[in-house]
Fold SRPBCC family protein.
Amino acid sequence: MILLALIAPKTYHVSRSVVIEKPRSEVFSYLRSLKNMDDWSPWVKKDPNMEKKITGTDGEVGAVSYWNGNKEVGEGEQEITKIIPEERIESELRFLKPFASTSDAYLQIDEVDVTNSKVTWGFSGKNKFPMSIMMLFMSMDKMVGKDFESGLSDLKSKLQ
């Protein structure tokens, strides 16, 4: 067990990107709203009846989106922690159920050219023992990568 704990991955990072045919300012303005995430989040599709609540001023640092849903989406909250205007929105994801954990998430918006923007959606965190040992046999990228791809595809459809 000690050997497994020593070799187990201590961190994870997952990200996916998509190019959207809209100017960066327009994409950024849409993405900064936690409420708008309901329109493209892959997890809303997994439980359209989940309980949702936003506290604070949506789109501003300190705004929190709380959810409580079925087994696929669990319970947790996302808090906007940093906004770099026209460029990046950072948040802290706090999962409460089925497993308590915290991750750092971000939406990075880069200008490809005047009418196209590249959106990168990612998150990272630390694998704490004993979860770190489980990650020897599982891949966070495989677990959520397809959800990120699905969400970004829906985001692109929504904005174009």
